[in-house]
């Protein structure tokens, strides 16, 4: 069986993608029983992420000096993420779900010559209290599916995206821990293919009961 590897392309990713990855790692890695002793504390990563985000905002409005500061903050954040990526590589036990549960992405071992097509959310139904069940189209060569959700606030404003988990059954993906009477927006992406994952699906909203 080929050895799964953590995708290290974040070092050259756009600023917004790097910031998003840091957020995913903060959300998923810390408190994860598979990764009990990360070599970088959550406080250190949070500080580096916040410093980088602030520097990006300043660089967008400032001059060359602000850009230089942003680049330095970016290098600091990339350095911490590399240390965590090495740690995840040592502990994921060649299990894709374990690797993805860290917040990092995997280098694809799929021989498909192109990225996977994004899935389509066919319907969302109510399960138990505070639970919604998604059903999506099957994507050929997908190893599993990742769900994310965001709370829909007044005037359609969206809260931050939260991970809804990884699922191997496209016909029944139950997302729990939702607040009854609240509307949530969902997206799903397929995991696999030449890029590691597909684009996110078109968003679909539904009220939790």
List the helices and strands and how they pair.
Blueprint: E1 5-6, H1 15-28, H2 42-61, H3 64-91, H4 96-100, E2 106-107, E3 121-126, E4 132-136, E5 144-151, E6 162-167, E7 173-175, E8 183-191, E9 204-207
Antiparallel strand pairs: 1-2, 3-4, 4-7, 5-6, 5-8, 8-9
Helix pairs in contact: 1-2, 2-3
Largest sheet: 4 strands, antiparallel
Percent range for β-strand residues: 15-25%
Number of helices: 4
pLDDT < 50 runs, ≥5 residues: none
Q: For the residues shown, what is the average pLDDT?
A: 90
Estimated helix fraction: 25-40%
Topology as H/E string? EHHHHEEEEEEEE
How would you sum up the global shape? Answer: globular
Distance between the termini: 43 Å
Category from helices, strands and their pairing: alpha+beta
Summarize the structure.
Helix content is 32%, strand content 22%.
Architecture overview:
By secondary structure, the protein is α+β, with helices and mostly antiparallel strands. Helix content is 32%, strand content 22%. The protein is built from four helices and nine strands; from the N terminus they run βααααββββββββ. The chain has helices at 15-28, 42-61, 64-91, 96-100, and strands spanning 5-6, 106-107, 121-126, 132-136, 144-151, 162-167, 173-175, 183-191, 204-207. The strands form three sheets. The protein has a four-stranded antiparallel sheet with strand order 6-5-8-9. Strands 3-4-7 form a three-stranded antiparallel sheet, with no helix packed on it. Strands 1-2 form a two-stranded antiparallel ribbon. Helix 2 (42-61) runs antiparallel to helix 3 (64-91). The chain is globular. The model has no long low-confidence stretch (mean pLDDT 90).
């Amino acid at each position: 069986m080929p050895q799964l590897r953590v995708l290290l392309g974040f070092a050259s990713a756009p600023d917004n993608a790097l910031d998003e990855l840091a957020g995913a790692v903060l959300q998923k890695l810390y408190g994860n029983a598979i990764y009990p002793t990360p070599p970088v504390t959550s406080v250190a990563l949070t500080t580096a992420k916040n410093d980088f985000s602030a520097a990006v905002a300043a660089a967008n409005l400032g001059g060359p000096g602000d850009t230089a500061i942003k680049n330095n903050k970016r290098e600091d954040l990339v350095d911490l993420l590399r240390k965590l990526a090495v740690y995840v590589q040592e502990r994921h036990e060649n299990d894709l779900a374990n690797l993805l549960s860290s917040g990092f992405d995997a280098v694809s071992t799929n021989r498909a010559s192109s990225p996977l097509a994004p899935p389509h959310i066919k319907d969302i139904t109510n399960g138990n209290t505070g639970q919604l069940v998604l059903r999506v189209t099957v994507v050929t060569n997908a190893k599993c599916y990742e769900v994310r959700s965001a709370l829909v606030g007044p005037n359609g404003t969206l809260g931050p995206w939260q991970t809804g988990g990884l699922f191997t059954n496209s016909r029944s993906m139950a997302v729990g821990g939702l607040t009854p009477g609240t509307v949530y927006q969902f997206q799903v992406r397929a995991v696999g293919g030449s890029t590691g994952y597909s684009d996110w699906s078109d968003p679909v909203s539904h009220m939790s009961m």
